[in-house]
Task: inverse folding
């Protein structure tokens, strides 16, 4: 029993060492991250706990930046609208004054013709000659679904070589030379309460 505990402890120490090495390589350009997140942590639980906390901080930063970007975009849109309105007012004033150009201390203001802009009212009513053909786009979701179904049929056929249902499914799913499935991997999820 004690030997099993020693092996478990050795595995944990090795996992901690490998994780610290990986973090060291990952954080070459950001030494503060390594220092702030796991400095002083000695066992796997502490290192993973510190990394999960750092991940939570990054989630909060990403959410805050997303909100800030939305606010900046809204502000940019308001400024652009204000600018368009101001320019339209100046163009209207120059038209009324029957002047094409007016020199001011802030710059020379010139009224120019702007070509009419296209407005789409109902795309389905536009003749096809105005549409550009699009190159085909690979549907990766459908391809992955197909390959998973094929892998499942192969596994069922291996488990039950006489299973006619698996054989017929396998006939349906022929091999695809240009694609394959990976072996899969693991990830973690962190629930924030």
Result:
């Amino acid at each position: 029993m004690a030997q099993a505990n020693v092996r478990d402890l050795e595995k944990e120490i090795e996992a901690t060492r490998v994780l610290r090495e990986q973090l060291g390589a990952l954080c070459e350009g950001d030494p503060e991250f390594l220092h702030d997140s796991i400095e002083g942590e000695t066992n796997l639980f502490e290192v993973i706990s510190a990394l999960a906390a750092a991940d939570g901080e990054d989630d909060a930063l990403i959410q805050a930046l997303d909100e800030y970007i939305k606010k900046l975009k809204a502000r940019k849109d308001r400024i652009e609208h204000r600018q368009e309105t101001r320019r339209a007012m100046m163009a209207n004033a120059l038209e009324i004054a029957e002047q094409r150009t007016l020199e001011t201390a802030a710059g020379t203001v010139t009224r120019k013709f702007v070509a009419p802009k296209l407005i789409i009212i109902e795309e389905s009513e536009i003749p096809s000659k105005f549409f550009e053909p699009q190159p085909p786009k690979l549907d990766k979701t459908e391809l992955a679904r197909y390959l998973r179904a094929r892998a499942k049929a192969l596994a069922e056929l291996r488990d039950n070589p006489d299973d006619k249902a698996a054989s017929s499914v396998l006939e349906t799913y022929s091999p695809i030379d240009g694609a394959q499935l990976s072996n899969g991997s693991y990830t973690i999820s962190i629930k924030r309460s």
Notes: The helical segments are 2-26, 31-38, 44-96, 140-159, 164-172. The CA atoms of residues 75 and 81 lie 10 Å apart. Residues 139-177 form one domain. The longest helix spans residues 44-96.
